[in-house]
Structure formats: structure tokens, C-alpha cells
Amino acid sequence: MEFDDVTVRAVTADGDRTLLAGVSAVLTESRVALIGPNGSGKSTLARLVNGLVEPAEGRVRVDGIDVTEHAAQVRRRVGFVFSDPAAQLVMPTAAEDVALSLRTRHRSSKDRRAAALAVLESYGLTEVADRSVHSLSGGQRQLLALAGVLATDPSVLVADEPTTLLDLRNSRRIGQLLFGLPQQLLLVTHDLELAAQCDRALLVEDGRVVADGPADSVVDHYRALA
Ligand SMILES: Nc1ncnc2c1ncn2[C@@H]1O[C@H](COP(=O)(O)OP(=O)(O)OP(=O)(O)O)[C@@H](O)[C@H]1O
After folding, report:
1. Using one digit for the tens of pLDDT, what is the confidence trace for 199-225?
2. Residue nearest to atom 25 of ligand 1 (CA)
3. What is the pLDDT of residues 121-147, one digit of tens each?
4. In the chain, where the domains are located
5. Could you tell me which of 79, 83, 99, 172 has the fewest CB atoms within 10 Å of its CB?
């Protein structure tokens, strides 16, 4: 992932507002955390990676591919999970939701269902396959959202506060799962313990990256500021 002098602006009732100003970073580490105060621009930075937010200036690349010029190509490579899985669980049942993610890989609905059930089994979700997504617990829903995204085999996973709504046990479980993945992980989090386990962290404040380096030292720096 590469951010090259990226500025993001939004039009508001009070005029243009700069959400990110001149952010540059080449992220090659396997686990990268984005930390910083509420409203500092972490989600905006994360959302640039799959084109949910577009730069006003500068360039964003994933695997060397420009996100603005080749949006569809980049989106296929980037999986995205949010703190509230309800935002991405769109089908009535767990199995149907995963099957939807697999629609381009398996043409027949029978094959899709079989593949979806295999995915659910690998995440320990077999029991809930035919249950309404609304009846699942928060932890199960987040696991399902993650399973659906990972079923598409992205090369990069962007997770925006994926553990915020979870209890300690589920938050640890999702954390362990994220850290065990082969994909490069860009993790937006207020959980500084989780952030400190990353290889690198960027501290975002007021739309700028104000510290960047080994995660444990950036986290210590941020803690010292509080
Ligand atoms: N489309 C938009 N239009 C106007 N302002 C926006 C827009 N998107 C984000 N913002 C503002 O930009 C700032 C940065 O938002 P962002 O969601 O990136 O912060 P964050 O660091 O992820 O915050 P949090 O930790 O609270 O989730 C906030 O003040 C937010 O209100």
C-alpha cells in the first residue's frame, strides 16, 4: 500500500474541509495499525485504500495499482471490515451471505452453497449457517462478516475498528484471527494493546501522520501524549 502526498477534502456547509493533508507512506509491513484521536482521519485514510474515499490530490496504490484509475481492479484485492458488521451483512442467512461473496467464483447455486458451508465450517460457524444474520450475536456477526470478506481471497485486509463492539473474549478472538491471516492487514483501532502487536503504526492527528514507526514505540508515544 502506498500513499503519495495524499490530501482529502470534503465539501461541508461551511465550505471545503481538509480531512487529510499531505499524507505519504509506503506500507510494506504485514501488520500496520492506524491510531489516533476520534475524528483525526484514520477511517478516511483506511477508506482511501479501496476507493470508498477519493484523494483530491496525490495518489494511492495497492500492489502498485492506482486506486483512482483502476478502482474495480483494486477493490477485488482489498477486503474491508467495519466495526458494525450489520453494514455488510446483506443477505437473510449466514450461508446466503457468504455465498453472495462467492458469486463470481461459483456459477451454480449448489456449488456456491457447498463452498459457503465450507467457509462457515472453517470459522466454526456451521451451526448458524441457516440462521438469520439478525439473530446472531455481535461476535458471530463480526466473524461472519470477516469470513465473507476473506472468502474472496483479498491480498489486503482493511479493518476499521473491528473489535470495538465486541466483548473481551470475542475481541481477542477476532484479534487473533486478524493477526493469523496471510493477508497484509491495515488496522484502524483504539485498542492500543492490539495496535502495539502490529509491525508498524501510524499516529494520525488532525489529518496528518504525526508519528510513524515500530508499533510499540508509536503506541508508547501516543500514550505519553494522553
Ligand atoms: N464526507 C465527509 N464530509 C465531511 N466531513 C467528514 C466526512 N468524512 C469524514 N469527515 C470528518 O473528517 C474527520 C475525520 O473523520 P474520520 O472518520 O476519518 O476520523 P477517525 O480518526 O476515523 O475517527 P474515529 O476514531 O472517531 O472513528 C471527522 O471530523 C469527520 O467528521
Report:
1. 999 999 999 999 999 999 999 999 998
2. 38
3. 988 899 999 999 999 988 889 899 999
4. 29-42+71-225
5. 172
